[in-house]
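Box 3.1 A note on notation
Throughout this textbook, protein chains are presented in two layers. The first layer is the amino acid sequence; the second is a token string describing backbone geometry. Keep the layers aligned when reading.
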Amino acid sequence: MAFAAALGLRVAHRVVTRPGAAGLMEALGSLDDADVVNLRTPVDPGMRRVLLGGSDAVLANSGHEPFGLVGLETMGVGGVACTGSTGEDYAVPGQNALVLETNDPREFLGLFVELRSEPGKERALRREGRATAARYLWRRVLAGNLLPRLRALSGLAWRPPEPSTQVA
């Protein structure tokens, strides 16, 4: 925060006193002149949905977040995920996410400016991101990937789930 201020950016610190989106909006309501906002409160799921879905883009780079969950959460709420090129196997460049190959901020700016110049392309990317995230719901990952592997490791023959428990 000190570095941002030293660069001339206006930094605002906020504490959210109520949970959910309403608490977040209350804390951020008077930020007309801030360039950087430092939330000094844990971000609950309701707040996260607002922040990830309402942002112009969310950095979900594997260099900072190694499991890809932020990218999928962002996609799940219709946000624009900006990922690295490793670790986020679900990210398809320009189709469901902005995918960076370098650490050069000019690469992001080029991709972002191009996306914003074509509103239809941005809407399509957000839509495809939501569809991608739906394929990675925990129940699908568990049923399709983890449980069969656990059964194989335990020496049990794998059987598909009963029809009443299958994931559509």
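The mean pLDDT is 88. The domain at 55-136 is CATH 3.40.50.2000 (Rossmann fold).
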